[in-house]
Amino acid sequence: MKTGKITKEDLMKMDKEEMASLVINLSSIIQAQSEEIANLKELYKLKTAERYIPSSEQMGWLFQELEILDAVLAMDPQEEETSEVASHTRKKRKRLNACTAPADTPVCDVFHNEDATESIVGKDGIAYKRVEDKVVDKIAIIPRKVVVERHHYPQYKTVDVDAGQDNNKIILYPSASAALGASPSIVSDVVLSKFDDHLPLYRQEEIFAREGFFLSRQKLASWVIRYYEDLLPFASYYRKQVYQSAFLSKDETRVTVLDVKGSTGKPSTNGFMYITIADTFDEATGNTRSLVLLDYIQGRSREVLFEDIERYGYRGYLLTDGLNGYLSYPSDKHCVCWVHAVRKLKQLLKVNKKNVHALRIINEAAKLYKIDERYRKMLKSKEIDAETFLSLRREESEKVIDTIYEIVDEVRQFYSHAGAIGDAVSYLENYRIYMKNYLDVVEATPSTNANERVAKSFALGRRNWLFAQTVDGADASAFFFSIIETAKRAGLRADDYLEAICTFGPGTKSEAEWEALMPDKVDLTRLNEWRERRLNAKPDSNREKPYHFVGATR
After folding, report:
1. What is the pLDDT of residues 154-187, one digit of tens each?
2. CB–CB of 368/400 below 8 Å?
């Protein structure tokens, strides 16, 4: 039989056996091409849908889909009120209308009843007698109070003329930042506004100007970096404590530094904020010391990712998103995030909501979070000890993980490796040896959600300030952002903890002093005296000229 293009004459010459063979060959070719077209269509549809999905760092819910999907899949219709909308149902959200303020919020009275009469006649002609006044609580605000702190430092003048000119002077500043015209309170406020409220310095400059104070963005930036330089000894101790913790989880998010150039001479696009969260559980108290550390890094090679791990000799368990650079870490201590493991399956469901295998895997994976959360609450409340926690969580979680891989094996029987679902389960297959390792560690959870939340918070600000100018600026940003996120995880007010670090950190030299600034040890009541002094501040009645905050001068 001829190969290649078959003409009508060729067909006329074929006998029955040749014709049957041709039909079989053509049928197999058509079937193979049909499967390839179906796979390509599915992948194209998936990629088209992904194009309009915002990045993970812009979506607060993206790393909670397991919980959300599980809630939807397992929801009891009797437990949740629903409303009919077109051709589908949706949960009816509870409306929260109440605005709140703490019970110790100061209260003042505003009286509107000075001229009130004992009786009035309404429009309807009915007489009304005055009774007990109606009291309405309203939230109010006092404009920000800016004060001038006059710091008094000991100063000495030479008395021995032979030792030098008699106008030589020495001022005993406790730290370099003490000579600046910026108090710890304003530096911590600027830092918090930039990194937690996402206000770049030029906007802060405008806000100060609106309030009557000229503070240039350049001066604000220099103050922040000078304080950071004074805090470097504490920052080194803090970093050491991170790598002495029981458990680490890591992730990265992009950041651009203008002074770092790529091969084309343009700012490098290979810069990252390297996010490390370190957890150590204390069974005696039921609390976990949790430290957040951000670093500016260039590239994600193994050498860069493991630089501090090797420097400080960390040998504990490590949770990551499965990036190739981490795969050289010992496989028996490397945990891989379950959210990343099923991410492509969740993307697939956005295109094909009826894919049974994807739904089953995601539904099973969601159970891992519920199991961890349930036993972790019992551990924190001391209903169970750490050993029991590990035993109970492992017993239930291993059954779930085994079920997931049974479904994965089924998928391989029905779907091509080249197809969308075949590609989606490849991650689960490739990282199978890592997916149970988190069950060995009390501090470990099934995912890097905590790191993703830090990345999201950083990315929200990055959308405002876009980039850092220098590596020093990026390092200072990373340190202060670490302090803010650590305060949040420790249940502290970020403004209090930042001010404490900026107030008591510069000039500290001993490990005991540095340890006293750690989030689980810091005494924030030490700020009360400083704040009381500012609250009672009054203008200098003898002052007529404006203040100029340049260095230590007035």
Report:
1. 998 877 666 555 567 888 899 999 989 999 999 9
2. yes
As a whole number of Å, the end-to-end CA separation of the chain is 101
Placement of tokens 């001229």 in the chain: 115
The answer to whether 143 and 211 are in contact (CB under 8 A) is yes
Q: What is the pLDDT of residues 185-197, one digit of tens each?
A: 999 999 999 989 9
* Tokens 């309203």 found at: 138
Backbone angles phi, psi at 372, to 5 degrees: -60, -45
- SS3 of the chain: helix, strand, coil, percent, to 5: 50, 10, 40
Instruction: Round to whole Å and give the CA distance between 5 and 7.
Output: 6
If you search the block for the tokens 């540095």, which residue do you land on? 514
Q: Where are any strands of DSSP class E within 173-286? A: 247-254, 271-282
Contact (CB, 8 A) for 236 and 209: no
Of 429, 454, 427, 449, whose CA–CA distance to 438 is shortest? 449
Helix (H, G, I), strand (E, B) or coil at 357: helix
Q: What is the DSSP string of 99-142?
A: ----TT---------TT--SEEE-TTS-EEE--SPP-------P
Report whether 56 contacts 62 (CB < 8 A): yes
